[in-house]
Automatic annotation (TrEMBL):
The keyword Secreted applies. It comes from Musa troglodytarum. Homodimer. The keyword Amino-acid biosynthesis does not apply. It comes from the Eukaryota. Dirigent proteins impart stereoselectivity on the phenoxy radical-coupling reaction, yielding optically active lignans from two molecules of coniferyl alcohol in the biosynthesis of lignans, flavonolignans, and alkaloids and thus plays a central role in plant secondary metabolism. Gene3D superfamilies: Allene oxide cyclase-like. This is Dirigent protein. Belongs to the plant dirigent protein family. Pfam families: Dirigent.
Length: 145
């Protein structure tokens, strides 16, 4: 088993946004909590919580608002590692993200490179949210070949 610890940095507003609402049902507000909203991300994975910490990869994927009350997203993300011993490898996560939860668990459903045929889970917790930025701390527990 491999344990990875990293930070997920998202900028959801401004000219350099890395997370965007790209579609909502006709006649609805463009908001992450609108039922049917589709959000696409290309967020930064860093060694530490500081924006200046080493970039180790990207979180690329999408979320769809899957609850009528706007509280739960279906999330599918590829963690694409671009530095170090896992450079070129990916880990794929899938699961429910409850927007109000401070701690979130997702299933690892696959991977590539060093993480080919990966299984396991991630545990993430919100560190900060506001000012157009979103920061989460991730621990990934990966079983692979």
């Amino acid at each position: 088993m491999t344990h990875l610890h990293f930070y997920f940095h998202e900028m959801y507003s401004g000219p350099n946004a890395t997370g965007l609402v790209v579609a909502v049902p006709p006649g609805k507000n463009s908001s992450i909590d609108t039922f049917g909203a589709l959000i696409v991300i290309d967020d930064m994975l860093r060694e530490g919580p500081e924006r200046s910490s080493k970039l180790i990869g990207r979180a690329q994927g999408l979320s769809a608002q899957a609850s009528l009350d706007g509280t739960a997203l279906l999330t599918a993300i590829n963690f694409v590692f671009t530095e170090g011993e896992y450079n070129g490898s990916t880990v794929v996560i899938l699961g429910k993200t409850v927007s109000s939860a401070l701690t979130i668990e997702h299933t690892i459903v696959g991977g590539s490179g060093r993480f080919r045929m990966a299984r396991g889970y991630t545990v993430s917790k919100v560190i900060s949210w506001g000012g157009g930025c979103f920061l989460m701390e991730f621990d990934a527990y990966i079983i692979h070949h």
